[in-house]
Amino acid sequence: MTFPGSFPTTRLRRLRRWGWSQALVQENTLTPGDLILPVFVCEGAQRQAIPSMPGVFRHPVELLPEVAAQAEELGVPAIAIFPATDPGKKSEDAAEAFNPENLVCRATRAVKQQLGDRLGVICDVALDPYTSHGQDGLVRDGYVVNDESVSALCRQAIVQAQAGCDVIAPSDMMDGRIGAVRRALDEAGQGRVALLAYAAKYASAFYGPFRDAVGSASNLAGMSKSTYQMNPANSDEALREVALDLAEGADAVMVKPGMPYLDIVRRVKETFAAPTFAYQVSGEYAMLAAAAGNGWLDRDKVVLESLLAFKRAGADGVLTYFAIEAAQLLRK
Ligand code: PBG
């Protein structure tokens, strides 16, 4: 006896048998064109390693165009720039965020000068790399205030747009900021700049290594961002956030973090059919890099599998610290 009862007439294994038949029925693909590389910039002349993100570096402005050119050559369409601001330049009012000579503006100009329209430059809008308290907005009586923060975010967006960035990505989660930033950009003559809204951004512990990278972890001193970032327990609320951001003029939306939130990516894509991105955040990078570094996971395979999973969930693209590495693997 080999098989109890009747034999199956439908055998899904038939088309899994050969490489050619697998290729024919493959539903989703990952290409370098799906990837966005987040990069950290710092002062000084030396690249700096980030201990909680082995393999990721902070780059001096002068060395960033080289990294950007590598991404462009591999077919990665865009980079997202984040600054490790000198502690001495951080303040209560985040004044450095509006300085046209700050790290992000200088980095944007350097990359655009070298690569022009061949590579997109995305700049985050949020005050946390510039505030002495590490919060994304302005703090009054211990609370991150909304509308005053939005005014500051508009100023930050304009300075970054004037430096030449192509996409402004507000990651601050203040109410009404997408509409306000859109109006501010248009009034400043920056109508060409697109908005990628971090629409569903959760108050997540997976951002830990990023906060080390930009040096905001010590400023935050254990304070949470849960009065503005979303509760990880919620899913309907993500759809309300996305609906508002699209109505206010977002050109594309983002879900963040990534891997633990693929259900949100799927709901957002199915509900709105808008360009939808996901961020495989620093903590996700750290987990995979640590396990691979210990020999517990096959790095090449998990990197590509994790990124393909975003495509399957409905994402149009993924922000990932693995972008260059994944593009190299895909080229092979
Ligand atoms: C800043 C910002 C954060 C990230 C992107 N933009 C950190 C935070 O909200 O605390 C996290 C990215 C990552 O973890 O890779 N608002």
What is the strand and helix layout of this fold?
Layout: H1 19-25, E1 35-42, E2 48-49, E3 57-60, H2 64-73, E4 78-83, H3 103-115, E5 120-125, E6 139-140, E7 143-144, H4 147-162, E8 167-170, H5 177-187, E9 194-201, H6 208-213, H7 217-220, H8 236-247, E10 252-256, H9 262-272, E11 276-280, H10 282-293, H11 299-313, E12 317-320, H12 323-331
Parallel strand pairs: 1-3, 1-4, 1-12, 4-5, 5-8, 8-9, 9-10, 10-11, 11-12
Antiparallel strand pairs: 2-3, 6-7
Helix pairs in contact: 2-3, 4-5, 8-9
Bound molecules: ligand PBG.
Family: Belongs to the ALAD family.
Catalytic activity: 2 5-aminolevulinate = porphobilinogen + 2 H2O + H(+)
GO molecular function, one term: zinc ion binding
